[in-house]
Amino acid sequence: MKGNITRRLDEITAKTQDKELTKVAFQEWRSNTPVRSGNARRNTKYKQDEIHANYAYAKRLDEGYSKQSPDGMSKPTIEAVRRYLKDEV
User: Fold this and answer.
1) What is the DSSP string of 2-26?
2) Are 89 and 11 in contact (CB under 8 A)?
């Protein structure tokens, strides 16, 4: 019989491997991607549980270059994932 801690750790592990978590991360990343011409959002894809920012200036935008997204995309995405995990676990 598993103890309470072991059961809780199993629940946390299951949630961190949940496909829903990566979808939450993708949606947050994409919503925080600035829109000028639409190229950055159009070329941000979700493939095999990974976020692909396929444009040359992705790093620059993520560093807060755009006034539309001064915190970039990573920081708000990490916060959204934390909130998701807190709510789910």
Assistant:
1) --HHHHHHHHHHHHHT-HHHHHHHH
2) yes
Task: Record the pTM.
Answer: 0.74
Query: Which residues, 6 or more positions from 10, have their beta carbon under 8 angstroms from its beta carbon?
Result: 2
72 and 62 in contact (C-beta within 8 Å)? yes
What would the mean pLDDT of 16-43 be, rounded to a whole number? 86
- Spatial separation of the C-alpha atoms in residues 3 and 34, rounded to whole Å: 47
Domain ranges across the chain: 4-88
Taking only the tens place, the pLDDT of each residue in 26-39 is 999 999 999 888 89
